[in-house]
Structures are given as C-alpha cells and as structure tokens.
Design a protein that fits this description.
homodimer; 143 residues; mainly alpha; Arc Repressor Mutant, subunit A; two-stranded antiparallel ribbon; 2 strands; DNA-binding
Amino acid sequence: MKISTRGRYSLRMMIDLAQHYNEGFISLKDISARQNISKKYLEQIIPFLNRNNLLNANKGHMGGYQLARHPSKITAREILESAEGSLTPVSCMDNVPNLCENCGNCITLPIYEGLYDIIIKYLDGITLEDIINNHKSSCEYYI
Amino acid sequence: MKISTRGRYSLRMMIDLAQHYNEGFISLKDISARQNISKKYLEQIIPFLNRNNLLNANKGHMGGYQLARHPSKITAREILESAEGSLTPVSCMDNVPNLCENCGNCITLPIYEGLYDIIIKYLDGITLEDIINNHKSSCEYYI
DNA sequence: TTTTATTCCTACCTTTTCAATAGGTTATAT
DNA sequence: ATATAACCTATTGAAAAGGTAGGAATAAAA
C-alpha cells in the first residue's frame, strides 16, 4: 500500500510547476535542482503525466514544461493516478468492465471497492492550489 | 498502492476462521482447501498475524487455529496492518517518533497523513462479523 | 548558420520485493 | 506408536522498483 517514488516525485514536480505557474516554461533542469531529483528520472516520469494531458511542453532552447491547466483545476487524484497507473487497492478492479471472473461472488471485493472509493474522494478534494496555499513557507525537505 | 497477496490472503484466512468460529481449531489444510491458497504459503503468513495476537494455535493431531477474539472484535485494519506491516502510504511515516528528518517542513507529508487517516478510519469500521454478515451466500471465487 | 539548451526516445542495469516451494523438526491427540 | 498438525529456515524464479546512459530531434539565440 505504498505510493512509489514515481508517484511522490510526480506530485512534487507538479507542485513545483504550480509554484512557478505563469512564469513561462520551466525546464527539468530547474525542477531537478530545486527538488533534488535526478533529471533523467524526471524525464521518464513525464510520459505518465502526459497520458492525461497534465502538461504542456516546449522543446529546444528556453523550452520546458508548464501545467496544462490552472493549479485549481488539477487534483492530487489525477496526478497520482496518472503516475501510479491506478489507485485501486487490488488489481482485479483494473480490468474494467469485467473485473475478474465472478467478482459478484467475492466476499472481499466490496471492502476494497469501499476503500478505493474513500481514497479517490479524498484525493479528488485536493488541488495543486490547495497544496501551495496551505504551505506558504519555503520547503527544503522532501520525501 | 496495491495490497499484496499476503494482505489479501490474510483477510480471506481470517474471514474463513470467522465463518467457522466456535468449531474448535481449524487446520491450515482445511483453510487451504476452501480458499484455494497454498498451505505452505499460509504457514508463512501466520507469524505476521500473530505479532498482533490475532490467533490461538494448537499443535499436533486435531490442532489448528482459531480467532483470538470474537469476530466482532477484530477489524480489517488490524488484519491488513499486521499482514502488510504498515498501511502508511509513504515509508517515512513509519519510523516514529522522528518520521524522516525535518518532516515539519515537507509540503507533501500532510497529504499522505490525511490519506492514511481516512484509510485507517475506514478499515477500523469493518469487523470480521460485519464482513460475514454482509455476505450470506457461499463464496466460490476469490481475489 | 552555428551553437547551445532543451525535450524526447530507447536500452540497459542493479537491487529489492513478491510469491511462492521445499524439507525438515517439534508437539499432541488418538 | 503413529498419524497429523503447527513450526522453522532456506532457497528460488520472476517481476518490479528505481534508477543510469547515450544519443536523436528540435528550437531559440548568438
């Protein structure tokens, strides 16, 4: 039940981009330096976030990334779901629409469905704007 | 963010024991047959559950396991937490009391703390009794 | 037009975790 | 005694995690 570094780094990268929203395109070099995450690893994370069109990119000199939408319109759920692939607690919930075979008869599935439900509700309620507003002071340390 | 097979199997084993509460000691052989889980693997799961004293055991002929408490007094949180080791979404929350270094300054930690909070609250509200009462019909399929 | 700075793409690598299997030892009702 | 169970420890194969590495494509600036 741990969130992977890919998920955690994605969140930090998106927060960083939110903190520099309206400053044009931000390079991975800058994010890497500020967040102390390998630039090469950040490169690999980008495609996951772009599956859900969370970023705009510009190549070449003075290029970089910016949020595709205003920080108030991007939620922690979107970010973590994009990065992790899925936030369901059991993989049999991922293969919609059939779930696994005969899930209608599974005694534990409703527990996991309920769990997924509250996780999604919680993360849907948190936007990038919320995050940076609730944390005005500079942040030096990360997880 | 997936629950491992150890967690899922633990839940199924405990539900099985709840369904046969007051029938004396239940052998792993029986649970293995009913739940279609390798008996050898179940053996390895037991110690995790017993760290939190969820089971009573009897060795030898006619031996087996029984729940250490009434099904209404054992929650999904206890079972999954025992099996998984921890249900925190980030490992830096595990090393109490210091968390990681300088978590007071971490912008993302409050998000994960809030997430952990709702997960725990949800799973604490589900007892083994609840689970078997909400699922009277026989269950043939598992995840 | 050349240089420089960036994203983009693919392959590789090392370590850890997952999910078991295997073989034996100890205890205990019958 | 003997069958039947829990208990214990080691091993293994596959997959995932968490990166590193090198270069190609692109575009702004000099």
